[in-house]
C-alpha cells in the first residue's frame, strides 16, 4: 500500500508541475492579449452554456458517476439511457433572464415577490427576524408595510441567502416528526424543541474520521453557526420514478436536508451531515425510510476525475481508488487554471460542482454493531462561485479565494453581493440510494413478520450503525420525547424490502425537471450575498 501511495504522490507531483506551466502560459497569454480576450462584465462577449455529453460511467451497483449535468446508468428501472448535458459559461455573464428564476418555476411553495411588492421596493431583511433553525427562501413575504389593504399583502424583504425547497411541501406524505427530531438536544447544549433545518448531529469545526468530538468552545464552533447558509432542503414528488440499478426499488417521494457549501469551506471538508426521508412507489410496496447522520464525500478532485487535491484529513483508503475511476465518493470542484477569463475553452469547462456520496464504509470507520444502514445522495451545483488553485494549499486557497464575480462587485445595504450567475443558487440532484443490511430481516429488532421486508424503529450513530446497547433509550411514538443526539439519530424503516437496493435517479432521466434555480430576485436586482 505504501508503494502505491508513493506512486500516486509522484503522479500528482507531475500533474501539479504541468498545471503550473499551463498557468504561467495562461498568465502571459492574458497580459499580451487582454484587450482581445477579456470579456467586459455583463457585456455581449459573455458566453452561453455550451453543450456537452460527458456523462460519466455507466455505473456499478448504486452506481454511475455524473459530470456536466448528465447521469448514465439510468433510464427507467436503470435501463441505461444517456442524455446530453450543459457546461457553464465563462466569466462573461449571460442575460439575467436565462439564469434567474423570478417567477419561481419548479420551486413548489418557495415565496416569490409580486409585481406590486417589487414596485413598492423590497429591502434587505433585518437580522432580528432571521432564525437559524427556521427554513426560509430568498424572499420573506410577511414583513414590511401593508401594500394592499384589501388582501393584507406586505412588501416583504429579502435575505442574502436561501435554503432551497420548502420542506413542508411534503408534510402530507412524510409527516412532521422530523422537525421535532431536528429540534432535539443539540451537541452545543441547546434544545429548541422544533426546527426545520439543521439537527443535533450537525458537524463542527474539524469534524472528520479522526476528529469525532466537538471542542469545549461555545456553540459558534458548529456548522449551523459558522456555516449556516450551507443548510439546504430538496424535495421531490416524482411521477416518473427511475432507479440507479436496473432491479432496484424506487423512491418517488423524498425530502432531503443536508449541509454543504460549494466553496472552499465545503471543498475542504470530507464529512457532511444530512437526513433523508423517502417513500417507495406503491408498486414497490410504499415503504417509508427515515435516517441520517454524517455522510462521506470522499476525496476532493480538481477538476473532477482528473486531479486529486490532497487534504490533511484524507483517509488512506481512498488512495487505493484511481482518481480517473469516476467511482463515488468524490467532491468535484471548480479549478482556477481552466476557468480564467479569456482562456480558450473556458466556456466549456464552466463551474459545475459535482458531489457524489457514499455511506461511511467499514474500511474507513469500523462498525459498532452488525447493522450499518447505507444512505446517500449526489448533487450538481452548476453555478459554484469559488475556484481552487491546485498550485496552492487549501489553507492558502481559503485565505485568498478566487470568485467568479470578483470583477463585478456590488454592495447593497453594506452587504457584498453577487451580480452574476455564479452564486450557488442552482441545484440538480441526480442520485439517491438506500441500503438495508440483509441481516436485519428476522433480527430481534425487526417487527415485520414478512420475509425480506423489515420494520424497525430505533436509532443509529452518526455513521449509520444501529444502536443496540440501549444508550439512546426506548423508542417513543411521541417524536418530541425521543432522546436525539449526535449518536442517537432516529431511524424509521416501515415495510422496507431487503432483497434489493433502493434508489432514485435524476438528472438526465428527467431532464429540466430536476434542475432547480433558487435565485428568484427580480431582473436587475441582486440579493444573494457572498456566501449562499
Tally of individual helices:
9
Q: Span from first to last CA?
A: 40 Å
Question: Biggest β-sheet: count, sense, barrel?
Answer: 14 strands, mixed
**Stretches where pLDDT falls below 50 for ≥5 residues?**
1-92, 338-349
What's the pLDDT, averaged over the residues? 79
Global Rg: 23 Å
Envelope shape: globular
What percent of residues are in strands? 15-25%
Overall SS class: alpha+beta
Structure description:
The structure is a single chain. With 532 residues, this protein is α+β, with helices and mostly antiparallel strands. It has helices at residues 2-37, 96-99, 115-120, 171-174, 177-182, 223-226, 264-267, 346-349, 394-399; strands at residues 51-52, 66-67, 70-71, 85-86, 139-140, 146-148, 153-154, 157-158, 231-237, 249-259, 271-280, 288-296, 300-301, 308-309, 330-332, 353-356, 374-381, 386-387, 402-403, 410-412, 415-417, 426-435, 453-460, 489-497, 502-505, 516-517. 14% of the residues lie in helices and 22% in strands. Strands 9, 10, 11, 12, 13, 14, 15, 16, 17, 22, 23, 24, 25 and 26 form a 14-stranded mixed beta sheet that branches. A two-stranded antiparallel sheet has the order 1-4. Residues 40-108 are annotated as: Disordered. Keywords: Membrane, Transmembrane, Transmembrane helix.
Secondary-structure blueprint of this entry?
Elements: H1 2-37, E1 51-52, E2 66-67, E3 70-71, E4 85-86, H2 96-99, H3 115-120, E5 139-140, E6 146-148, E7 153-154, E8 157-158, H4 171-174, H5 177-182, H6 223-226, E9 231-237, E10 249-259, H7 264-267, E11 271-280, E12 288-296, E13 300-301, E14 308-309, E15 330-332, H8 346-349, E16 353-356, E17 374-381, E18 386-387, H9 394-399, E19 402-403, E20 410-412, E21 415-417, E22 426-435, E23 453-460, E24 489-497, E25 502-505, E26 516-517
Amino acid at each position: 500500500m505504501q508503494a502505491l501511495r508513493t506512486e500516486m504522490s509522484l503522479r500528482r507531483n507531475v500533474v501539479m508541475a504541468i498545471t503550473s506551466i499551463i498557468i504561467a502560459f495562461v498568465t502571459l497569454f492574458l497580459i499580451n492579449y487582454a484587450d482581445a480576450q477579456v470579456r467586459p462584465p455583463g457585456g455581449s462577449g459573455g458566453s452561453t452554456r455550451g453543450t456537452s455529453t460527458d456523462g460519466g460511467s455507466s455505473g456499478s451497483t448504486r452506481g454511475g458517476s455524473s459530470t456536466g449535468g448528465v447521469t448514465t446508468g439510468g433510464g427507467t428501472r436503470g435501463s441505461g439511457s444517456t442524455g446530453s448535458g450543459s457546461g457553464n459559461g465563462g466569466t462573461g455573464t449571460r442575460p439575467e433572464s436565462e439564469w434567474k428564476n423570478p417567477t419561481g418555476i419548479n420551486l413548489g411553495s418557495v415565496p416569490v415577490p409580486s409585481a406590486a411588492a417589487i414596485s413598492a421596493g423590497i429591502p434587505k431583511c433585518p437580522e432580528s427576524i432571521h432564525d437559524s433553525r427556521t427554513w426560509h427562501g430568498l424572499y420573506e413575504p410577511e414583513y414590511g408595510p401593508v401594500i394592499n389593504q384589501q388582501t393584507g399583502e406586505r412588501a416583504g424583504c429579502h435575505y442574502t441567502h436561501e435554503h432551497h425547497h420548502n420542506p413542508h411541501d411534503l408534510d402530507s406524505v412524510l409527516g412532521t416528526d422530523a422537525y421535532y427530531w431536528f429540534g432535539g438536544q443539540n451537541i452545543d447544549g441547546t434544545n429548541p424543541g422544533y426546527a426545520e433545518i439543521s439537527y443535533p448531529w450537525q458537524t463542527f469545526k474539524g469534524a472528520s474520521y479522526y476528529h469525532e468530538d466537538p471542542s469545549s468552545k461555545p456553540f459558534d464552533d458548529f456548522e449551523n453557526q459558522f456555516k449556516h447558509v450551507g443548510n439546504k432542503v430538496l424535495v421531490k414528488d416524482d411521477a416518473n420514478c427511475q432507479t440507479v440499478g436496473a432491479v432496484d426499488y424506487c423512491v418517488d417521494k423524498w425530502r432531503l436536508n443536508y449541509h454543504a457549501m460549494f466553496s472552499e469551506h465545503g471543498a475542504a471538508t470530507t464529512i457532511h451531515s444530512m437526513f433523508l426521508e423517502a417513500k417507495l412507489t406503491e408498486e414497490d410496496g410504499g415503504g417509508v425510510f427515515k435516517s441520517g447522520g454524517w455522510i462521506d464525500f470522499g476525496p476532493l478532485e480538481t477538476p473532477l476525475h482528473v486531479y486529486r487535491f490532497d487534504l490533511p484529513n484524507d483517509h488512506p483508503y481512498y488512495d487505493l481508488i484511481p482518481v480517473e475511476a469516476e467511482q463515488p465518493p468524490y467532491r468535484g470542484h471548480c479549478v482556477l487554471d481552466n476557468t480564467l477569463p479569456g482562456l480558450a475553452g473556458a466556456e466549456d469547462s464552466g463551474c459545475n460542482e459535482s458531489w457524489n456520496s457514499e455511506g461511511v464504509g467499514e474500511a474507513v470507520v469500523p462498525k459498532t454493531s452488525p447493522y450499518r444502514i447505507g444512505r446517500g445522495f449526489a448533487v450538481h451545483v452548476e453555478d459554484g462561485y469559488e475556484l481552487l488553485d491546485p498550485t496552492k494549499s487549501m489553507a492558502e486557497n481559503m485565505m485568498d479565494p478566487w470568485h467568479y464575480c470578483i470583477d463585478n462587485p456590488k454592495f447593497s445595504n453594506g452587504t457584498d453581493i453577487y451580480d452574476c450567475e455564479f452564486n450557488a443558487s442552482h441545484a440538480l440532484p441526480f442520485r439517491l440510494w438506500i441500503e438495508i443490511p440483509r441481516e436485519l430481516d428476522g433480527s430481534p429488532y425487526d417487527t415485520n413478520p414478512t420475509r425480506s421486508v423489515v420494520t424497525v424503529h430505533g436509532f443509529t450513530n452518526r455513521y449509520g450503525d444501529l444502536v443496540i446497547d440501549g444508550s439512546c433509550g426506548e423508542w417513543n411514538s411521541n417524536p418530541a420525547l425521543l432522546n436525539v443526539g449526535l449518536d442517537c439519530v432516529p431511524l424509521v424503516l416501515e415495510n422496507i424490502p431487503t432483497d434489493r437496493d433502493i434508489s432514485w435517479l435524476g438528472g438526465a432521466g428527467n431532464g429540466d425537471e430536476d434542475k432547480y434555480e433558487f435565485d428568484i430576485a427580480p431582473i436587475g436586482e441582486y440579493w444573494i450575498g457572498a456566501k449562499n
